[in-house]
Amino acid sequence: MNATQEKLKLKLAQALVAAFGAEYTGVDPILVTASNPKFGDFQANVALSLSKKLGMQARVIASAIVEKLDVSDICKPPEIAGPGFINLRLQTSYLESQLNAIKTDSRLGVPKTKNSQKEIVDFSSPNIAKEMHVGHLRSTIIGDCIARILEFHGHEVLRLNHVGDWGTQFGMLITYLREVYPEALTTANALDIGDLVTFYRQAKQRFDADETFQETARQEVVRLQAGVEDTLHAWKLLCEQSRREFQVIYDLLNVNLIERGESFYNPFLPAVVEDLEKTGLLEENQGAKCVFLDGFTNREGEPLPLIIQKSDGGYNYATTDLACLRYRIEKDQAKRIIYVTDAGQANHFTQFMQLAKKANWIPDDVELVHVPFGLVLGDNRKKFKTRSGDTVRLRDLLDEAVSRTRADLEARLIEEGREETEEFIKNVAEVVGISAVKYADLSQNRTSNYVFSYDKMLALKGNTAPYMLYAYVRTQGISREGNIDFENLGTDTKILLKEDAELTLAKDLLQLDEVISEVEQDLLPNRLCDYLYNLSDKFNKFYENCPVLKSEEPTRTSRLMLCDLTAKTLKLGLDLLGIKVLERM
Ligand code: ARG
Questions:
Q1: Is 547 in contact with 481 (CB distance < 8 Å)?
Q2: Average pLDDT across the chain, whole number
Q3: Fewer beta carbons within 10 angstroms: which end of the chain, N or C?
């Protein structure tokens, strides 16, 4: 709800009390956006909901409210429609004054939240020495967008990368590392073992084939847990190597994260078990310490245990998440913790969150949210894979998006008879290619699966990054064509709204605030994409119907200001999606 709606809601609530008495204080006027612009901008439905209670016809109630309602500074005279809706239509002068107020504001009229708090976004979180797959790409893109929006809204955000950097697989990896790179363990230098995924596969082959190797690997796990120095050194080398590979992707995507992997919480794991023991929730089951929670059963319908500590003393993914949760609440003082992972992990999150609640570890003012997302599918509607059936390397995927963009661009340049420098082509291809991948992901409702298609995401038409970037370029083209400095349009001239296309555009421009609040609530970035897509559509209609540079003053400057405000809104909105704009493309 934006400031205008807040004001109207308040005035309606007051009118209701004035009409029917103090007992109606606090009754929600049920103000919603009008279902059809024909009926105005907003409608209040409270009269219908009170009809029974008051024993009166809703239309009669509506007129009693309207009689006491003074919204003349914001709206045209209210109208009563149908069975008793109160329809409100914004005054043009009100819209003009709102636009004139935000046009010089760097936040474009979006105030910082009054309820700023510490929020953690746990996202990306790939696993060391394993493939960073498209699922991690989704997490990275969605998590970054959520973090950007929360930061912009004025929250203190901790962007945490919960990398999987611990576990028994390191026994195998370290043993193999000692075998093939014995020198690596005695030098302090960073190691380059090439592709870690291949390394992992080879280590696994050795492990599966050789029992002595397996035994050594088991001993390495014990040594790692005991913190034996050279084993720890080997583990660090492996983490370093992965980290460098992940960083290439983060750089390409322009995403910042603070790494705080699973290993960070090792010192706090025993306390989780101890404290759970005290709550009486822990049960011994075949030597393992576990908890039975409501609603979790296996295929046979038997209760499914959540294992906290295995019979060999080792801990699980969930134990680490419990320790991590306590740390985030107690040490980080987080008030909302957002986990961005694939929907396949939903059970894991429900389980450990339910347990933490039962154990009384979650204060009332702390909110935990799992933000699940669907799968990325290939053309065949199965999990996205390479033609040979392997997982797609993210590096290759992003490179491919960039090189396809480049090919499209080069073809377009020939078609348009344009000549551009290599630097220009390279930059446009990179920005558009990466943006296309991001936008294709963000513009889908994250909970659904989507089909990955370069052709679709790179199309210049439709709800795509190239289309959005092009809309921005168009606005900048106007300033170039007319030799106009948008920053210097003069302070005396004001935005005036005459044509329908101007009014519709104006209303959209004033909705950014509301959209951002919505995304902050629902954590659905596709809402922001939809908004920006609609906005560019409204802008195109305006641009087709309302001449800008050829108009007389003061219309000309007013329209230029609308162009500028649209450009700024697109730029800000795209930035919140993690997408950079281009001046030309
Ligand atoms: N490393 C996990 C994976 O690759 C994701 C971790 C998500 N965060 C968490 N706190 N569990 O699936």
A1: no
A2: 94
A3: N
Q: What is the DSSP letter of 185?
A: G
Position of tokens 């599966």?
Answer: 208
Write the pLDDT tens digit of every residue in 458-501: 999 999 999 999 999 999 999 999 998 888 887 778 999 999 99
Residue 59 φ/ψ, nearest 5 degrees: -60, -35
Query: Would you say the CB of residue 124 lies under 6 angstroms from ligand 1?
Result: no
Domain assignment present for residue 388? The answer is no
pLDDT of residue 1: 72
State the distance from the centre of ligand 1 to the C-alpha of 123, rounded, in angstroms: 8
Name the DSSP class of 280: T
444 and 323 within one domain = no
87 CB within 6 A, ligand 1: no
- For ligand 1, say whether the CB of 2 is within 6 Å of any of its atoms: no
Phi-psi region of 65 (alpha: psi -120 to 50; beta: other; left: phi over 0): alpha
| Helix/strand/coil for 121 | strand
| pLDDT digits 0-9 by tens, 328-341 | 999 999 999 999 99
Instruction: Take residue 322 and report the two structure tokens written for it.
Output: 């419990």
- How far apart (Å, rounded) are the C-alpha atoms in residues 244 and 263? 18
Residue nearest ligand 1's atom 6 by CA: 125
Cα–Cα distance for residue pair 492/514, rounded to 1 Å: 29
The β-bridge relationship of strands 336-342 and 367-373 is: parallel
Give the pairing type, strands 118-122 and 156-161. parallel
Q: How far apart are CA 517 and CA 26, in angstroms?
A: 23
Instruction: Choose among 324, 314, 310, 327: nearest CA to 352.
Output: 324
Does the CB atom of residue 162 touch ligand 1 within 6 A? Answer: yes
The pTM of this model reads: 0.94
Provide Rg for the chain, Cα atoms. 29
Q: Quote the ipTM score.
A: 0.99
* In a domain? residue 192: no
Q: Which domain holds residue 346?
A: 119-163+262-377
Of 567, 569, 558, give the one whose Cα is nearest residue 96: 558
In a domain, residue 139? The reply is: yes
